[in-house]
Give the backbone structure.
Amino acid sequence: MRAIARRLRRLEDQLGGADGKPRKTSRMMLRPTSGKVELENSTCRRTLCRDGTVMENIVLAPGKNGRAITDAELEEWVAGFPLEPYNGPFRPTRLPRLPPPE
C-alpha cells in the first residue's frame, strides 16, 4: 500500500494535485526597460521542484518592432513550455588545471 501511495504522490507532483489547488510558483523574469519585447526571441524554463513548486526563469528579448504584451499573453506563452523535473542542485564542472605561466 505504501508503494501505491508513493507512486500516487509522484504522479500528483507531475500532473498536479487531485484537489485542484494551484501549485506555488516562483518566477524570475528579466525584461528590457523599454517595455517592448519579442516573444519569438525570448526564452523560458519551467522546473518542477521536489516540493511541488514550479520555478519559472524567463528572459524577455527586446524588440525593435516589438510591442508591450499583456499579462494574459505572457501567461499563455509561459504555459506553453513543458515542466522539467528537478535534477538536483547546480554543480559546476571542474576546470582542467592549467600549467604555470613561464
Remarks:
- The chain has two helices and four strands.
